[in-house]
Amino acid sequence: MEAEELLKELAISMLGDEVLPVLEILLKKKGELTDDEIARILNVKVNNVRRTLYILSDHGLVRYKRTRDRETGWYLYYWRANTDQVNDILLNRKREMVQKLKMRLEFESNNTFYICPDDGSRYIFDEALENEFKCPRCGASLVYYEGDKVKEIIERKIKELEEEINNETKAKVS
Ligand SMILES: [Zn+2]
């Protein structure tokens, strides 16, 4: 996939469709634009554009260069899309995912689960105890839930991601 498409997809998956108009203007421009210029092109308030730009920048999708206007003394922000850093953004996302999966794995390992055989809802021991081992949704008796399958799946996913991260990091160094 092209870097531009990848950046757009990342933006949608992280932040939703609302950020797209601003991002697309920057992608089309393939260079720098000020918030004022973007606001004019989109015909929206500059404050809205600024807010979107800061959100995009928080997630590493755009960046800016700041210069001082000699006449007014005001700062001007020139924004551009981070198409050249899309691989780093992806890599960071994978690292974050690994962190989340590891936390999830810890949670799975440190808890005992009970499951409702009728509707499949799952409860940790404390919740099951509170409800006297009856499903709070339908009243069926909860049964002990073997969590090894879930842990296996999480462990496999972590391994997969770590291998990808390794390969991509190596590819960059060489
Ligand atoms: Zn139930």
In short:
58% of the residues lie in helices and 14% in strands. The chain is α+β, with helices and mostly antiparallel strands and 174 residues long. The chain binds zinc ion.
What do you see in this structure?
By secondary structure, this protein is of the alpha+beta class. The protein has two domains: 3-81, Orthogonal Bundle (Arc Repressor Mutant, subunit A); 87-173, no CATH class. It is 58% helix and 14% strand. It is built from seven helices and six strands; from the N terminus they run ααβααββαββαβα. It has helices at residues 3-15, 20-29, 35-42, 46-58, 86-110, 125-130, 148-173; strands spanning 33-34, 62-68, 75-81, 113-115, 122-124, 143-145. The strands form two sheets. Strands 1-3-2 form a three-stranded antiparallel β-sheet. Strands 5-4-6 form a three-stranded antiparallel β-sheet. A hairpin with a 6-residue loop joins strand 4 and strand 5 (122-124). The longest helix has 26 residues, at 148-173. The chain starts with a helix and ends with a helix. Zinc ion (ZN) is lined by residues 116, 118-119, 121, 135, 137-138, 140.
